[in-house]
Amino acid sequence: MKRRRIGLALAAVTVSGAALVAVWPHARQAGAILAAQDDPVELSDLQVDSALRNSQNIVADQIEAALAVHDTGLAASFVDLARSKNISLPDDLVQRVNEAVAEENTTSHFARRFATGLVTGNADDAGSLSGTVAGDLFVFGDIRDVVRESKHLVMGEDTDRLVLGLAAAGLAVTAATYVSVGGVAPLRAGLTLVKDARKVGRLGEGLTEWAGRSAREVVDTSVLQDAVSSAAVTRPTQTVSAITAAFRAEKAGGLVRLAKDVGRVSEKAGARGALDTLKIAEGPEDVARAARLAEASGGKTRAILKLLGRGALLLAAGAFNLSWWVFGALFALFSLLASIKATTERVTQSVIDHGKRRRLRRQLASLGNPMAGAAVNG
Which of 1, 48, 189, 287 is within CB 3.0–4.6 Å of 261 for a Cys-Cys bond? Predict the structure, then answer.
């Protein structure tokens, strides 16, 4: 009976130990992710490592996909990520990326993209962003957007109040940009990118809803309608003065913070990195996290966002499952310790009982009892 009890205890130790060995790597990863859920830099690094362990070819595949759609910046971002993670890539693949980057950085290509951004007001790379920002700095772009949306408002037509609010804010910021000799240029670029993302449908649904509510508060509609009635692109100075009078700076704190964070992302990860962020963000907190990530990761940011999506910024889902891994490891550890305790107690008790029997046999033997051995063993 005692041997059976010891055997069961040893079996429990074996099973608990095997369970802990099996669960521990997952629990350790889960615990690290849960601990880093408020730090987008550490969180994204842990999740990228996990993604790379699950697929060794994921980086090369992503580079090929990016080159196929002529997204040179994304391809270069994955090369930077591979270099930081000591992942070897085929030499010919790296060469193709380098050639694409060199072509994109030529003067002629930059000039074409600059002109595109200046004329259309849409930005998706450094060149077009420079052109778009230049157009907004010369106020033509913002005046055009304010006048267009304001006329829709006056006529009772569908009005994009977000574009209207961003353009009005942009006019006010442009004046500050000139005064500070570019000191608020990142904010100006951020407003432009948010506005462009809205125009081309690359603004996340949650962020669109939040920004739309904020934009409604920053424009005095009645004052704006009076300003637009006399607005003219050919008289930019008078028009800007009239429109900025309708801008409520005290109500624009949220939009300004959002634009600043977008500008920070753009400075470190490029215009497309900022647009990628705006597409997955559900609110200004996501953009602020992306700014922290971009400042730490630089050129790798776009690759990280492509791999992880919104999961690069926060623990959007799976916290319950991660907690279960940790709970499972704790339970296995408790079971192992309990089994070791039980086994130790039973083995110790068995040794003590064996010692008692030996001493009893010796005592009986010293008394000359012929039945001593049988009595003790029985």
Answer: 287
pLDDT below 70 — which residues of the chain?
1-2, 9, 20, 27, 29-36, 109-110, 117-131, 133-140, 154, 174-185, 221, 224-246, 249, 316-325, 368-378
- Two tokens at 293? 């990530």
pLDDT value of residue 368: 63
248: left (phi over 0), alpha (psi -120 to 50) or beta: beta
Q: Token digits for 22?
A: 């099996």
Half-sphere exposure of 116 (CA within 13 A, CB side): 14
Closest-CA residue to 162 (of 318, 278, 329, 55): 278
Q: Residue 48 half-sphere exposure, CB side, CA atoms within 13 Å? A: 26
Residues near 281 by Cβ (< 8 Å), separated by ≥ 6? 204, 206, 207, 287, 290, 310, 313
Which residues are within 8 A (CB) of 68 and not within 5 positions of it... i.e. 6 or more apart?
A: none
How much is the mean pLDDT over the chain? 77
Cβ neighbour number for residue 229 with a 10 Å cutoff = 12
The tokens describing 249, both together, are 């700076």
* DSSP, res 247: B
What pLDDT sits at residue 181?
43
Residue 202: how many CA atoms within 13 Å on its side-chain side?
17
- Please tell me the distance from the alpha carbon of residue 175 to that of residue 194, in angstroms, as a whole number: 19
Residues in the chain: 378
Half-sphere exposure of 258 (CA within 13 A, CB side): 30
Residue type at 98 in one-letter notation: N
Name residue 247's beta-bridge partners.
219
Upper half-sphere CA count for residue 82 (Cβ side, 13 Å):
23
Alpha-carbon gap, residue 299 to 268, rounded angstroms: 7
